Every structure is written in C-alpha cells, then in structure tokens.
Amino acid sequence: MADILITEALTRRYGSLVAVDRIDLRIAPGERRAIIGPNGAGKTTLLDLVAGAIRPSGGRIRFDGRDITGSGPARRARLGIGRIHQRPAVWPSLTTLDNVAVAAAQSRGGVRRSRRPAIELLDRLGLADQAGVEAARLSHGQRRQLEIAMALAGEPRLLLLDEPAAGLSAVEFERLGEVLRDLPEGMTVLLVEHRLDLVYAFADVVTVLRDGQYVVSGTPDEIRMSHTVRQAYSGAVA
C-alpha cells in the first residue's frame, strides 16, 4: 500500500536559522509515528509544515499521492489532515457539545445534522457529562480532550498531535493515554511529544530529530536502547 504522507527534502529557514533541514519521511496508512528530540529540534515546525500553517523554504509534501506543498491549511483539512495544537484551541464561549458540532459541520454540513455524531464523540472521549458546559469552564485536560473530539469530528485520515500531554495532571495523562489507544485503527497519527513513556506506549515507529535534522527512526524498543538517540539528547558528538 502506498504511503499516505511523504516529505521530500522538507526545509524551513528563518533567516540564517534552519529550523527543519531537508527532512525525508514516509508514513504508511494507519501508522502511529512519533517525532521526538530535544528542545529546538524542529518538531513543531515540522507539524506546522505538514498542516500548512507555514510554507516550506524548500522540498515537497505529498499526501495520499497529491502534492500539497502549496496548499493552505483549509484545503489540507478538507483532504483529511486534522491538527491538535500545543495549547488547546477551542471556542471558549460555546458549550462542549457546540464546539464539536461546529467542527463536525465543516465536514458533514450543518450544525443541526452534526449534533448526534458530536454527542457520540463526547461519549467516546468521556466528556458526555460536560456537554452543556461552556468550554471556558473546563479543566486543561478536558479542553485537550475536547480539541481531540473536535479534530475527530472532521473524520481526518491523518491526525497531527502536538504535545497533547503538556500540562496534564496524572489523572488527565492516564485518560489521554486511553483516548489515544481508542483512536480509529485505520487513522494515521503523527505525534510530537516530550513524554517518552507515552511515545513508547503509543507509537509504531519513532523518528528522532536534532537541530532540525533527521537522526534515526526505529521501533520504540530500538529507540529506547539507541546510543545514537542518547547522544542526540545529550548533545554529545558522535
């Protein structure tokens, strides 16, 4: 089966700083891929490039056989790319249910038609009892779950997760792990995360970046035992 996401020599420069440096990735349909690395490795910038939030300085991005390098985030969302940001992005004055219904309406057509699938999503993510609560009143962990529900409402084929565990309590972190394990089996996921326990439990393949450059990819067990990865995190020279 053809890879669903391919990046070819993907590069992003900010003046003299090369934030992402000629990254080549190939991700299969249904794969759970994690991107890890020390601060400043280029992980979030890579997600921004895939989502269309920023334009590359060089290279190409292909999604499901299409060249989407020049496409904006709205077109990529219509093609099936969903995104969860580092900080939950919800509509604070809307109820939890209405947040998901509005997100679902963008792909299903009409908020009223989207309320039933929105209720089902809230139930799946453990937020059914918060359906009538304004998003501004939710805890940080609940807002994170809500944003995941909003992304799933668009029925993405590729879900981009940017540090979903950031700022979560122990209970919220455990709930997040359950939510990720329950994601649809055929959905491709690209996860950026500092919590390596979550990464190793979730990912099929882990890719390591350092200073915007590709270091290595492997299974969680291979990455956990890799001397090269320890050097990347410590800054040691190979």
TrEMBL record:
PROSITE patterns: ABC_TRANSPORTER_2. It comes from the Bacteria. InterPro entries: AAA+_ATPase, ABC_AA/LPS_Transport, ABC_transporter-like_ATP-bd, P-loop_NTPase. Keywords: ATP-binding, Nucleotide-binding, Transport. Residues 5-236 form the ABC transporter domain. One of its GO terms (molecular function) is ATP binding. SUPFAM superfamilies: P-loop containing nucleoside triphosphate hydrolases (SSF52540). GO terms for cellular component: plasma membrane. This is ABC transporter ATP-binding protein. It comes from Phytohabitans flavus.
